[in-house]
TrEMBL record:
Region (Disordered): 69-92
GO MF, one example: structural constituent of chitin-based larval cuticle
InterPro entries according to UniProt: CHIT_BIND_RR_consensus, Cuticle_Struct_Prot, Insect_cuticle
Keyword list, A-Z: Cuticle, Signal
Stated name of the protein: Larval cuticle protein LCP-17
PANTHER family xrefs: CUTICLE PROTEIN, CUTICULAR PROTEIN 65EA-RELATED
Domain of life: Eukaryota
């Protein structure tokens, strides 16, 4: 048995790497090092789930430490080739710095779109750049000749 393992590891070194990684993951229990806060032990105050047969669903959850979230979704155009799952929801929690975070989002064929005052926003486009873009739009370059 040991000879078979030894031969396998010699001729297939990637298996040795995989086995070593798996052993390291199993042995790397660091839960005793990390500080525990009451957040991990927060009780669920309210939890609701409703799943329909045609792709529609809704859920909500609220915990005793002030976290709340809810989401609803449905299958859009279920009988067509362009069927898509849609979802919209919101979440609320308190950040470690004490700021109350509120997030609203939608996810559909246009992608995931989140809104919240805590999310970064790009700076406004400088006036000179806006004027240059307008000039380019109004005066397109002539077509290239071959």
């Amino acid at each position: 048995m040991l000879l078979a393992i030894y031969v396998t590891l010699i001729f297939y070194p990637q298996k040795l790497l995989i086995i070593t990684a798996l052993v390291a993951c199993v042995a790397a229990d660091v839960s005793h090092i990390l500080p525990r806060s009451g957040e991990a032990d927060a009780k669920i105050l309210r939890q609701e789930q409703d799943v329909g047969l045609e792709g529609q669903y809704q859920w909500a959850i609220e915990t005793e430490n002030g976290i709340s979230a809810q989401e609803s979704g449905a299958l859009k155009n279920p009988q067509s080739e362009n069927a898509a799952q849609t979802a919209q929801g919101q979440a609320r929690w308190t950040a470690p710095n004490g700021e109350v975070i509120e997030l609203q989002y939608t996810a559909d064929e246009n992608g995931y779109q989140a809104q919240g005052s805590h999310l970064p926003t790009p700076p406004p486009i400088p006036e000179a750049i806006l004027k240059a873009l307008e000039y380019i739009r109004a005066n397109p370059p002539p077509p290239e000749r071959n």
